[in-house]
Amino acid sequence: MYSSPDSDSELPYMEPPSNEALEPIRKPPPYTGTPLFLFLSDIKLFFQDFFYLPYLFIPLYPWKSGPFSELYPSRENLIGITIHCILSATQFAFLVSLFTLSFLPTFVYIGYVGVCFAANELVCWHFNWGIPSNGLKSTEDGFTRSWPRHDDEAWIFLNGICVGAGVFFDLIQCLIQRALLYAAQDVRECYILVKNALLDDHKKKVILILHSQCGIEGGMIIDWLLDEMPLDKLQKLEVYTFSNLANHFSNPYRGNGTRSSVIPHIEHHANEKDFACRFGVLNFTRHYTQNENRFAGKVFINRGGA
Question: Where is this region: Disordered (predicted)?
Answer without folding.
Answer: 1-26
